Each structure stands twice: as structure tokens, then as C-alpha cells.
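User: Structure with adenosine-5-diphosphoribose, C-alpha cells only please.
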Amino acid sequence: MKKKVTIIGAGNVGASVAQLVAQAGLADVVIFDIVEGLATGKALDISEACPLWGSSSRVNGTGAYVDTAGSDIVVITAGLPRKPGMSRDDLLSANADILKGVTESVVKVSPEAMLIVVTNPMDAMSFLAWKVSGLEHRKVMGMGGVLDSARLRTFVAWEAGVSPADVETLVLGGHGDQMVPLPDYTTVKGVPITKLFTWDMINALIERTRNGGAEIVSHLKTGSAYYAPAASIFEMLKSIILDEKRMLPTAAYLSGEYGVEGVYAGVPAVLGRGGVEKIMEIKLAEAEKEGFERSVSAVRELIKKMGINNQDD
Ligand code: APR
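Assistant:
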């Protein structure tokens, strides 16, 4: 039997993930949205593409949580996207309310599910989802690092004039403005970019990556990025469902790793059948360590603003 993936939010990101999962035949998909007919319409459209993709995934749209029952993985994209000039943090209180309600409803009918949180500010929302769900922390994670990495890989590939497939990178810390890219671990076919580019160039590429989401918002004006976010979620889903054990930058709960306790932050994690199966601890340079700690403090600040208890109880 195929795994069941539920996607909460049939907006740009949610529908794009549903398409990728169905097109690959990776799992059966349920799309849920509160806007009447939205999830049903998109699910029907995707279903009708399945014969053309040679996919046997079943795709259903719904506005009733009972239809999401027994999900193996739930991707939460429900929320308000960023508008021009808005930071991810501005979204905090509106999206916290949405996320809390969604998480409660999801775990009621899928108590065994894993959760992948996409709603921004994602690191803080992952913490909230973990708290509200009562799930083990290895089962609750956030998507951000894969996207930040993909953005950096793109810009490095353009600059080097090579395929992005030959570029690898590692990004730590919070999603977006607070991310901590690691130039020593950013390579073109194994060659660190520190050996290929000047520091001015490296810093420019990093700056563009940091603002990658905002750059797209400034063009779109009425919404935020969704193709690359969806592809990033898909990569995480695939690693979990196929037990690939890919090492992917993931917002994961830290219990002492990197000297940090009781918070979600972006770290290299091995994703497999068990969810976050392992967090890889790599040696950081002093400036990177400081950047990571700043980023963790920013997440803690948001958690405090949401008024949730920051203890693992
Ligand atoms: N339950 C279910 N769906 C909801 C809820 C809710 N309580 N509240 C809002 N939604 C739905 C909206 O109806 C909408 O269809 O979530 C969907 C969000 O879709 P978009 O507005 O298109 O946003 P999208 O671009 O997909 O971004 C999704 O990713 O980047 C983050 O912060 C961003 O939270 C946003 C998420």
C-alpha cells in the first residue's frame, strides 16, 4: 500500500507539492484547505493528470479532517504568505493561531503521523507544532534549509558556469535572513568555493541567498515563492518515504547538539523512515558558531513571543 501524505493548505506551495508527489507516484495524497472547493478542485485536476504521468497515486481534496485520517506524513503549508516589505516574523501571530488549530486537528486523526512544517516563521512554527502535537521530536521537522541551500547552489552554479547538480552546499541556522551558510562546505564538484571565488563574490552570493525569498516576493508582489519550496519539501518527503537517509538541512529539535537545547534550528539531519534519524554535528568556525547562536536566539525570541513554554516537558 502506498504511503498517505496529507498536505494542509491547497495554495501555491501545497498544490505544487501535491503535484510533485503525484507525478512521481511517491504516495497517495490528500489536500486539505478551509476555502471551500479549493482542495477538491486542485486534487481533481492533479488526478486527471496522473494517467498522463503514468502515476497510480490517488489524490483527494477535502475540507474535512476525517479524510486525512491515518496519514503517514502531514505537510503543513496553511497560513498567510509574505507580502512585499513583510518579514517572516510579521507573520508570527496570525500563522501561530492557524498552525495550532491545524496541528491539533491533524494529530487527532493521524496520531502516528510525521509533520513537516513549512508555514513561516518556520523554525518557530516547527517548535509550536511539536509542542501542540505531543509527538516525539524526531517526527516533527521544518523545511527551510533545503530551500536556502538550493538557492545558494543556483547562484554558485550561475557564477561558476556549471550545472547546479555539481554544486553542494550546507546551510545552518534559521530560515532566510538568519541562515548561516558554510562556504568551506560549499563546493563545485568537491572544490570549496573559497578556492574558486573571491570573498567579495562569496559574500554577494550569500547575501542574495539570504534575501532569496524577499527577492521573489518583490517580483511577484502578491505572493511568495513556491516552485523551489515545493521541490524542497518533495526532497524531504522522498528521503523519509523511501528511507533514503539523505543528509538534508532540516529544522530539527536540538537536545544538546551544537551546544543548544530545547529549540528548533536548521542543522544537517539524516532523514529516513524514522524521521530525523540523526543530527550531524560538524565543526564550525568561530564566526559560523556566532551566526548559528544568533540565529538560535532569534528563534527563541519568537517562541517567547508566542508565549509557549520552552521546556521539553
Ligand atoms: N487550514 C487549512 N488551510 C488554511 C488555513 C487553515 N486554518 N488557513 C489558511 N489556509 C490555506 C489558505 O486557504 C491557502 O489556500 O493555506 C493556503 C496558503 O496558500 P497560499 O496563500 O498560496 O500560500 P503559499 O504560497 O502556498 O505559502 C504557504 O508557506 O512560505 C510559507 O509563510 C508561507 O505560510 C505560508 C506557506
